[in-house]
Write a structure and sequence with these properties.
By secondary structure, this protein is of the alpha+beta class. The chain contains 1 helix and 5 strands. It comes from Candidatus Thiodiazotropha endoloripes.
Length: 74
Amino acid sequence: MCLAIPAKVVAIDELADNATVELGEVRKAVSLALVENVTVGDFVLIHVGYVLNKVSEEEAQRTLELFAQAGVTP
């Protein structure tokens, strides 16, 4: 089983095909190699340094709320 975490895209480096994502106070560079048409402000699912797909802001918030209810801090 794998766990993908939703995060918000705050910057994109097109030359490196990377995005900077933000989850709370944490920012991390992740690869965009698997997904096209990601823009700043999009919410994405990330797993082991890769964006797997885009999700709605509502879906991202719902998932983060479920993590919080389970006592998990991504």
